[in-house]
Each structure stands twice: as structure tokens, then as C-alpha cells.
Amino acid sequence: MEGIGVSPGIIIGKVFVKKNIELKVEKYYISQVITELDRLNSAIEKTLNEIDHIYINTLKKIGKKESEVFIAHKMMAEDPEFISMIKGKIERESINAEWAVKEVRDDFVQILKSIDNDYLRERSADILDISNRLLMNLLGKKNIELSKLEKCIIVTDDLTPSDIAHLDSKNVLGFVTENGGKTSHSSIMLKTLELPYVVGVKDITLSAKNGDTMIVDGNEGIVILNPTSEQIEIYSKKKRQFEQFILKLNKLKGKETTSKDGVKIKITGNITFPNDIDKVIEYDGDGVGLYRTELLYMDRDKLPTEEEQFQTYKVTAEKLQGKPLIIRTLDAGGDKDLSYLDLPKEMNPFLGYRAIRICLDRRDIFKTQLRAILRASAFGNIKIIFPMISNIEEVLTIKAIIEEVKEQLKVEGITFNKDIEIGIMVETPAAAIQSDILAREVDFFSIGTNDLIQYTLAVDRGNQKVSYLYSQYHPAVLRLVKLIIDNGHKEGIWVGMCGEAARDEKLIPILLGMGLDEFSMSFSSILKTKWIISNISKSKMESIVGEVLKLSTPLEVKKYIEEKITTNY
Ligand code: PEP
Ligand code: MG
Predict the structure, then answer these.
(1) pLDDT value, residue 20
(2) CB 483: neighbour CB atoms within 10 A?
């Protein structure tokens, strides 16, 4: 059976089918509203205590980042709007608390599920989790104790963060669910626990029974129920190979990355969340190639202060102990809304008021961030990068503003790195085509393929309907990438890439052959990229690049790479 592999690894074991307790909620009318509200209040209190308990447990057992979902759960469970909707129903309709919770839960879930955004859609699992916990407390029921299970693969319709927090990870081999998605909190938690997880396997809770044997391949998203001995043999071998491969990858930690013919390459991390930096260090990244600072500005109702930003940048730079930290200035707008900025509703947000355009318009915001970055530059190896540059005037204006900010800091007697390096994201076709001219003004380039692809191919990067046209293998994109690298090198600057294409296993050899100096990516891909690069020769790839650039379609490119390169290592 096929699903989507969201946490890698292969396991073979016995099944435990966890049917979420059918919460039969019945509607009835009450005579005493006050008594019902009291009942609701004590169930809410119990729920909040439970969430506190799970939070502490998760913090100890899994990690800080993973435990934060329960802070969010607590906020939702005590959200005044959520609670007053439930209370309002009880008061207006004289109905029992369970029915009121069920109706409010169903309304929220229905709204979230109808939104065309994976992240928000998957938040419906969090609402279900909290509401069901509240219902269990109202009904006085207890869920199955996952902590008491013996080594098994848990098969269930949906997996909530609370389920994972309760289990003893030593006793669980992996998970298969009917629902769920890549960005759900559960998949993030299971990746950290390194337990294989396949989601979206249709009707698996109906076909699997307790005690059945199952193979779960989280790499390929495949599940085999009651496999033949031949299949068990094949997958046992795959499992061994995968485990050996992981061991091999771990051995790369602490070593420089050089191609087979001795060319040194930098593999750095992209970070967004505060704890990402610890992961980049754990997976031995050569620094941070892209620090997306938007998060500092999101989930709040006013701009972050200079001091707040300074502290965050300083701590992050210090953790890297001299390795570079490339901080990108605010890249708001497009799909990243900041409600308190009152950004205009636009027909084409990705072509509108976003990124550097906002910063050059709102100099107050820009200068505050630059001051914070410059101040932090006294404490580590910080470089600055600017998003969505589309012309040389922007770069010249930015440089003048930086000089102004530096002057001001000098006057105030504040120390900073006066030779701080500045770079630009090359992510618009205009910047790519004019990269020869832009290269004379900056110290480095980082190619943002996520945007470069959408602008070059005129395909909205978040629109499912046209996603079949969005491809990093499109020859037009690859030709631009080559042009950017060549132009950068001609002007004597280094060129990196921080878009998703930098961690594409098929493209890495091609990018190496094109001369890319730095590959920046999510921490989870760092070791694998180090391994790929150490197993290929740059000079061999150079000759293949010429052939690739002559091809006509993304499919031809993909096939050519598969045939010529991927099988070579
Ligand atoms: C990019 O556009 O490739 C990039 C790295 O930036 P973001 O995904 O944040 O737009
Ligand atoms: Mg971008």
C-alpha cells in the first residue's frame, strides 16, 4: 500500500491498531446552566493541567522545539474566543457542555479544512486533539495508554501530538496512519524521535489487525501488510543498507567536504526557528547560509525591538563559534503577511510590495534591523544578505543606508565589524541576467531558486493547480543558474545557493559541475549532501553540465541526470 513517507527509516514488526475511542456525544437539554458551566470549567482546568504535564514530559523526552506545540495547545484550550463560543451555546440553547464542545470543534475543523493552505489545514488536528481531550474529561473517559505497549507498529486513523507525547518511544517501532501530512506537528516530532512514519494509507485501520506483520518503509512511503518471506528478506536487506548508510553519514561529521578530485565545498544550513541552529551544529554544517528572520516579526502584534533582535542574532552567531552566519533582512509580503504592518491586499502579492521593497520604503524597520545585525557582528562571523533584488539601484541604496547606520553606531561608540560582508539573493530573472553588474557591488551571491523558478517560469510557487509547471530541472532555470555562477566568478565573488534545489540529490552533481561554492539547506539534508559531493568528481561533472544545458525539457534533464550520474555513486 502506498502513502507518503514523512519520517524516514525501515521497520518490520507486529501491528497494534489503535482505534481512537469513539467519543459518542449525545445532545440533551439541561435545567441548570450554572451547574453545566461549572462542569465545563472544571473539565477545562483538568485539560490545562494535563497539557502542562504533557509539555513537561515532551520537553524532557523529545526536545524544546517539539514541546512547544503544547504551549500552542494550551493557548488554544484557554483561548477566550473558543471558550466563550462553547459557553455561549450552553447559555443560549440550554444544551449539555459535551454537545457545545462538539459543535464548536466541528465548526473550527470544517473552516480550517477548507482553507487552501497545508499548514493551516493540518492545524485542524490540533483543534481535534484539544477538543477531544476536553470531551474525554467531560465524559470521564480515558484513552488507551500508549505508554504500556510492547514493541509494535502503531496503525491508526490519525496521530495527535498528545499520542506521541504519551508513548514510550523505546516500545514503538513506527507509525502508519490514514490521515496526516508532511507539516503536521506529529511528523515533525517523529522525525526527531527517528521513528519511521507513513501517512495517507487508505483504509489501513480496516485492513490491518492486531498481531499482523507489517513492513513500513518511511523512505518510500510504502507499507506491506502480512508480507511474504521473500518480501521480508528484501526489506531486511534494505533496512540493513539504510542503517549502514546512516552510520556512514554520521562518520562524515567533523570532516571537510571535498569532491573526489579534491575541491572544497561549503555545506551550510538554512534556519528559521531558534532551535534550528542547534541542529545545524549537530549535523556539522559549515555555518548558516540563510537565516530567515521573518519569524522574529511574525506571531506578534508589533515590530521586534532592536535590542530583541540584537540578542537573538548575537546568541546565534556565538553558537557558531566563528563559522559564518548569513542573516537575511526581512522578507515580508508575498505569502508572509505581518498583520500589524497593514500590508495592502494586492492582485499579485509576489510581484508587489514585498521583501527589500518594503524595507526600502519603511526605512525605520530596515535601519532597526541593520543596527541589530551590525551590533551582533561584533560577536561572531556575521554577513548580511538582501532578498528579492531586481535592480542595481536597490543595491546602491542599501549600501548607502548601511554606511549611514555604521556612521551612527560609530558616533554612539558602539562596536561592530566595519568590514561586514554583504551579499544579495539572486532570485529574480532580472538579477540573474544582470548578475555581472551586480557582482561588482557585493561580496557574494546566494541563489534563491524557490523564487527564481517561480519568476522565471511564471508559476506561483504555492499554487497546486500549476505546480506541474514548477521545476528546478527546467533548462531555462538551469541556464540562469549557470550564468549567475559564471558572472559571480568572473568578478571574483563566491556563489552559493539557499533555495530547495541546493539539496536536490539529482541536481547537486550538476551544481557542483557548474562551480557552485556553497550549498545551503535544511539541516536534515546536510550529511547526505556532504556524502554525495564526496563521492563525485567536479571535473567529470563539468563536461556533463554542457550536455545538460543543451536539453529541451525538465523531463529530459531529469532522465539524463538519472542515467548519467545518479547511478555512478
Ligand atoms: C528562495 O527564494 O529560494 C529562498 C531561499 O527564499 P524563500 O524560500 O524564503 O523565499
Ligand atoms: Mg525567496
Answers:
(1) 66
(2) 16
Q: Closest Cα to atom 6, ligand 1: which residue? A: 448
- Regarding whether 466 and 347 lie in a shared domain, the answer is yes
Give the other-Cβ count within 10 Å of 365's Cβ: 19
Question: Number of structural domains, the chain?
Answer: 3
Question: Are 122 and 185 members of one domain?
Answer: no
Q: Whose CA is nearest to atom 8 of ligand 1?
A: 450
Would you say residue 480 has pLDDT above 90?
yes
What CATH number did the domain enclosing 376 receive?
3.20.20.60
Give 371's pLDDT tier (boundaries 50, 70, 90): very high
Instruction: Indicate the pLDDT class of residue 56, thresholds 50, 70 and 90.
Output: confident
306 and 239 in a common domain: no
447-457 pLDDT, tens per residue?
999 999 999 99
Q: Which ligand 1 atom is the nearest neighbour of the CA of 294?
A: 9
Instruction: Assess if residue 569 is contained within a domain.
Output: no
**Are the C-beta atoms of residues 560 and 551 closer than 8 Å to each other?**
yes
Establish whether 185 is a catalytic residue: yes
Q: Nearest Cα to 386, choosing from 418, 354, 416?
A: 354
Question: What is the pTM assigned to this prediction?
Answer: 0.72
Same domain, yes or no: 80 and 165: no
- Alpha-carbon distance 529 to 80, whole Å? 47
Instruction: Give nearest CA residue, ligand 1 atom 1.
Output: 448
Question: By mean pLDDT, which of 20-24, 98-102, 387-391, 512-516 is the weakest?
Answer: 20-24
Whether 152 is a known active-site residue: answer: no
The reply to whether 134 and 162 lie within a common domain is: no
Please name which of 339, 336, 316, 228 lies closest in space to residue 269, comparing C-alpha atoms: 316
Cα-to-centroid distance, 470 and ligand 1 (Å) = 14
pLDDT in tens, 182-193: 656 677 677 777
* 202 is a domain residue: yes
Q: What is the CATH number of the domain that holds 87?
A: 1.10.274.10
Q: Which ligand is nearest to the CA of 450?
A: 1
Distance between CA atoms of residues 459 and 249, nearest Å = 36
Is 27 within the bounds of a domain? no
Pocket test for ligand 1, best of 450, 452, 456, 518 (most atoms within 8 A of CB): 450
Specify whether 242 is located in the same domain as 263.
no
- Residue 45 in domain: yes
Q: Grid coordinates representing 148? A: 504500556
Q: Are 472 and 449 in contact (CB under 8 A)?
A: yes
Residue 463 sits in the same domain as residue 534: yes
Average pLDDT over residues 30-54: 91
Ligand 1 closest atom vs CA 451? 2
Residue where one domain finishes, among candidates 139, 154, 189: 139
Which of 120, 139, 158 is the C-terminal boundary of a domain? Answer: 139
Which residue range is the domain that position 480 belongs to? 255-564
Atom number in ligand 1 closest to CA 449 = 3
Residue 147: which pLDDT band, with cuts at 50, 70 and 90? low
Report helix, strand or coil for 522: coil
Q: Is the dihedral of CA 383, 388, 389, 395 positive or negative?
A: negative
487 & 532 share domain? yes
Distance 424 CA to ligand 1 centre (A): 12
Ligand 1 surroundings by CB, under 6 angstroms: 290, 292, 331, 427, 448-451, 498-499
